[in-house]
Amino acid sequence: MKSRDIKSALRSMPAPAVDAGHVASTLALCRAGYCARRPLRPLTVRELIGRQLRFTALPVWLLQGALLSVICLVMGVSRTVDGAALPIPACASLSAELAALTALPFYGRARRYGMSEVEAAARVSRTRLALSRMAAVGVGDVVCVSAAALLCGGGWLDVLVLVAVPFLLTSAAALAVSLLAERDSSPFIAVGLSAALAALYWTLAQRFAQGLLRVSPSAALAVCAAAVLALAWEYRFSTSEKHIEKELGYGT
Amino acid sequence: MYRLELKRILKTRSTVILAVIAMFFSIFLALLNIFDNYYYTSIGSGVTMRGLAAIEYKRTLATACKGEWTPERISDAFAEVAHVREHHDTATDAEKRSIEPYIHTFISRIPQVYGVADSSTISPEEASDYYCQRKAYIEEATVLSYGPAAAETALKLDDGTTEPFQYEFGFGTGSDAASSLPVCLFAVAVVCSVICAPVFASDYYSGADDIQRCALYGRKRLGGTRVLAALTLSAALYAACAAAFVAITLAVFGPDGTSAQLALDALVLGNLTMNGVLLLALVAGLLSVLAMTAFTLWLSAHMRRPVAVLAVSLAVAMSPTFLMVLLRGMPLGDWLRLLLPSGGLGLGTGMIVDIQAGKFLTLGPVAVWTPFAALAIPLLEAPLFSLLALYSYTRHEGR
Amino acid sequence: MELEIQNLTKRFGAQTAVDGVSFTLTSGVWGLLGANGAGKTTLMRMLAGILTPTSGRVLCGGADTREMGEAWRDILGYLPQNFGYYPEFTVADYLDYMAALKGLERRAARERIGELCATLSLERVYKSKIRNLSGGTQRRVGIAQALLNDPQVLILDEPTSGLDPGERVRFRNLLSEFARGRIVLISTHIVSDVEYIAAKSAVMRGGRLIGLGTTAELLRAVEGKVFTALVPESELPRAEQEVRVVSLKGMDGAQVLVRYVADAPLLRGSEFAEPRLEDLYLWLFKDERRHEDV
C-alpha cells in the first residue's frame, strides 16, 4: 500500500478524543524524567584548552623555550658585523623544523602509555581533546615560527619558503609516521625522516638564499596548502574509529 | 651471539625504514648536485645552463685552466683578464670568452691572500708573487686569530705543500659536493644514532632486560655484543650511503686532483688535493659516526626511556651547527664543537670546513690544526663511549 | 536506572568479536564472566562508547547512548583491563588530569579527589609517582579515576587483578555500597568476586551470551554435575586424564581429594558436591581449557 493511500486512510478514520488527564500525566512524567537527569556542566573552549596547558602544552613549551633561546642568540649574533657571513636563512629553516619536532614526543603518547582507552571513555570527546591539545601546543608553535621568521628576515616569500614550508612539511611527515608506523618505532622513524628533511632543507635554503634556487610563490603556497590539508586529515584520522581500533590492538 | 644480535637489529622494521631513508637521501643529494648544477654567463645574449649541460660546459671551460699554475701563468692570466676588463665595452665576445675559464674557476681564490675582495685591484706583477704572498697571508691570519705559536705550526704544516698548485675539472671544482657531502654524512650520522637509541633503553623500558640479565651471558657478553653489532651496523650504513654519494658524484664529475688551496681556500695547509680532502672527510665522517653511535649507546645504557635518549642524541648532533653560529670566531666554540662526539660532522661544519678555514685549537704554546683534532678526538671517543656503554649496561639495575 | 543492550554486534573484518548480545542491566552489581577471547572487553568498550557497534544499540533510560554523547560519558565511569598512565604522573597529577577530561570543575574535583583518596587509602601515596607504586596500589588509582565523576554506570574490566585478598575484600565492599541505585558491571576471572557481590551475572563465550541470571540460576546448569572423590596418588595422573578437574587437595594416607565436573560420576567413590561458580566456569569453558592443555 502506498504511503499516500495510508495517509488518506488514516485521515478518514475518526480520531479518538484527547484525554486531558493522559496528557497531563505524560507531561508530568516527562518533566520528572528530565529533572532527574544530572545537569551537564557546560565546558567552555577556554576551560578545555586551559586545562590542557599544564599536562600537554607545558612540557612542549619547555622544549620550545630552549629552542627559542637558541634562536634569539643566533639572531643576536646575526646582527653583528660577522653576521652577514653566517648561514642565517639555513639556520632559520633548521629552527622551523626543530620547532615542528618539539611536539614529536607527544604524538601518539596516549597509545604508547596505554591511556587511550581511559581518555576515550572520559566526557571530553577525542576530537575535542585533540583540538584543544593542538590549540594549546599551537601557541608555542606560533611563537617559535614567528621567531624563526624574524631570524630569516627577507620578504614574505623568503619566510614562506624558508620557514613555513619546512615547518609544515616536518609536522605533517612526523605526524604521519606516528599514526601509521608501529607504536614503538614511530618516534625513531619520525626523527630519522625529520633529520633527513632538515639536512635537505639546509642545502636548499642555502641555495635559495644565494639565488641559485628559484621557487615561485604559487608553488610555495601550494606546498603549504598541501601540508596543511595533510595535517588536517591526519588529525581527523587520529580521532577516527579505525585508528582507535588499531590502537586497541584489533585487526592486527 | 653477534650474528643473532645483528639479525635482531636488522629485522626491526624501523631499522630497515631508516636505512632506506638514509640511502635515498644520499642518492637524492648526489643527484641534486648534478641536476641543480648551474652556470650563467652574460656574454653574448646571456646563457643559463642547468644540469648535465652546465657540467659539460664547465668541463670544457676548465680545460683552459688545467695543469700547473706557475707564478708566470698566474701573472699571464691576470694580465689577460685585466686587459679584457679594461676594454670591456669594445672587447669582442671571443675575447670575453677567453677569460671566462679564469673568472669562473679559481681566480676568485687569489685576491684573498692579498687582503682585497676583487681581483681587478691586483696587478699581474703582484699576482706572480702569489705563492709568497700566500705564506705571508697564512702567517698573518693565524697570528691574528690564534697567536704566534699557531702561526709557526701553520707554516710548518704548509712546508709540505707542493707548489705550484694544480687545477683540473672534477667533483671539487665542478660541483657543490664539498658542501653537500658533509650534509649527507650528517644525516647518515643522525640516522645511525636514531637506530642505536633503543638498543638498551627499550629493554629497560619493556622489562625484557630483567629476564636477559639473569641469563648466563646476559650481562657483559650481551652488552659487548650489542655494542659491537650497533657499531658494525652504523659503519656499514655509513659506508653504503657514502659510497652511493661518492660513486654517483665521481661517475659524473670525475675525481679531482686540484690543489685544495685553489678549490677551497688559500688557508688550506699541507699537500692536499681535493681527492685527499674527500678521503679525509670520509674518514673523519666514519670516525664521527662511530663516536656518535657509541655516545648514543652509552645514553641508551644509562637512561630508561628510548625517547629521552633520542632527544639528547639529537641535541648533541645539532649542537656543532649552533655552536658554529653562536661562538663563531671564538676558540671556545671550536673546542666545544670538536669535543662533542658529533664534532666532525654537522650542518655548516665538519672536516671540509675545518680544512678550509685554517683553524687551530690552542692550549698555551701548543697549537693543533683542527682537522687533526677532528680525526683524533672521535678516534678516542668511540672506544671510550663504547666502554662506558658496556659499563653502564652491566651495572644497570632495574626498578 | 536501566541499561538496555539490544542485539549488540561487533565485527572486525571476518572476525566477530561480539555476536548479537542482548540483555538489560539494572541497579546493582553485575558480573561478566567468560574465557579469554570471549568478547567481554569488546562488549565493555562498546558500552563505554570507545568502539562503535557494527549493529545494535545501547539504551540508557530509553535514550541511545551514542546519541547522548557527552551526557552518557558524563555519567559513566570506566576502568580498562590494561591500566596505563603517563610516566611522569604522580597520583595527584593523574587524578587532576582525569578530572579535567571528565569536565569536573576545579574545586569540586579537588574535593572529590580528597574523598576518594581517603576511601581508597591513597593519601600516603598522593604525591608519589604512579610508576613507583605496587601493582595493587596502581589499580586503586585506576579505580579512583573511574569514580571521580560519581558515575551512574560503572564499568570495570578485571578491577581486582593485582590486589591482595585484603584489598579485594575492601574493594568488593566499596563496590557493593556504591552500587545502590547505580549499575556496576565487572568482568573478572576471579569468580569469587562475582560470587560474593554480584546480584546477577552474564556469561559469554565466542562473542555470544550463553547464560544470564543470579548465581543460583546459573549454577543450575551444573547441578548434579560436580563431584568429589578420594583418589590414591598413584592413580592421579590417570584420573586427571579422565575427568575435568576443578581442584586437587592432598590428604592423609597418600590420597588426593579430587573435585571435578562431569555428566556422571566417573571416579570410584565419587560423591555429589555443592556447585560453585568456578565449577560452572570450567564446565562451560572446558573446550577452551582442553585446547590450552594440548
Could you walk me through the main structural features you see in this protein, from its secondary elements to its overall organization?
The complex is a heterotrimer of chains A (252), B (399) and C (294). Chain A has 252 residues and is an all-alpha fold. In chain A, 75% of the residues lie in helices and 0% in strands. Chain A is built from 11 helices and no strands. Chain A is elongated. Chain A starts with a helix and ends in a 5-residue tail after the last helix. Chain B is mostly helical. Chain B has 2 domains: 2-35 and 172-397, no CATH class; 67-137, no CATH class. Chain B is 69% helix and 7% strand. Chain C is α/β, with parallel strands linked by helices and 294 residues long. In chain C, 35% of the residues lie in helices and 30% in strands. Chain C is built from 12 helices and 14 strands. Chain C has helices at residues 40-47, 65-68, 70-74, 91-101, 106-119, 135-147, 165-178, 191-197, 215-219, 236-242, 277-284, 286-293; strands spanning 2-12, 15-26, 28-33, 55-60, 63-64, 76-79, 153-157, 183-187, 200-205, 208-213, 226-232, 244-251, 255-261, 271-272. In chain C, the strands form 3 sheets. In chain C, strands 6-7-8-3-9-10 form a 6-stranded mixed β-sheet, with helices on both faces. The longest helix of chain C has 14 residues, at 106-119. Chain C is globular, with a radius of gyration of 21 Å. Chains in contact: A-B, A-C.
Topology record:
The complex is a heterotrimer of chains A (252), B (399) and C (294).
Chain A: H1 3-12, H2 20-36, H3 45-78, H4 88-101, H5 109-112, H6 116-121, H7 126-152, H8 156-180, H9 186-209, H10 217-238, H11 241-247
Chain B: H1 2-11, H2 13-35, E1 38-41, E2 47-50, H3 51-63, E3 67-69, H4 71-86, H5 93-104, H6 124-128, H7 130-146, H8 148-158, E4 165-167, H9 171-174, H10 177-196, H11 198-206, H12 208-213, H13 220-253, H14 260-263, H15 274-302, H16 306-326, H17 331-339, E5 345-346, E6 349-350, H18 351-357, E7 360-363, E8 366-369, H19 370-395
Antiparallel strand pairs in B: 1-2, 3-4, 5-6, 7-8
Helix pairs in contact in B: 1-13, 2-10, 2-13, 3-5, 4-5, 7-8, 10-13, 10-15, 10-16, 11-15, 11-16, 13-15, 13-19, 15-16, 15-19, 16-17
Chain C: E1 2-12, E2 15-26, E3 28-33, H1 40-47, E4 55-60, E5 63-64, H2 65-68, H3 70-74, E6 76-79, H4 91-101, H5 106-119, H6 135-147, E7 153-157, H7 165-178, E8 183-187, H8 191-197, E9 200-205, E10 208-213, H9 215-219, E11 226-232, H10 236-242, E12 244-251, E13 255-261, E14 271-272, H11 277-284, H12 286-293
Parallel strand pairs in C: 3-8, 3-9, 6-7, 7-8
Antiparallel strand pairs in C: 1-2, 1-4, 4-5, 9-10, 11-13, 11-14, 12-13
Helix pairs in contact in C: 4-5
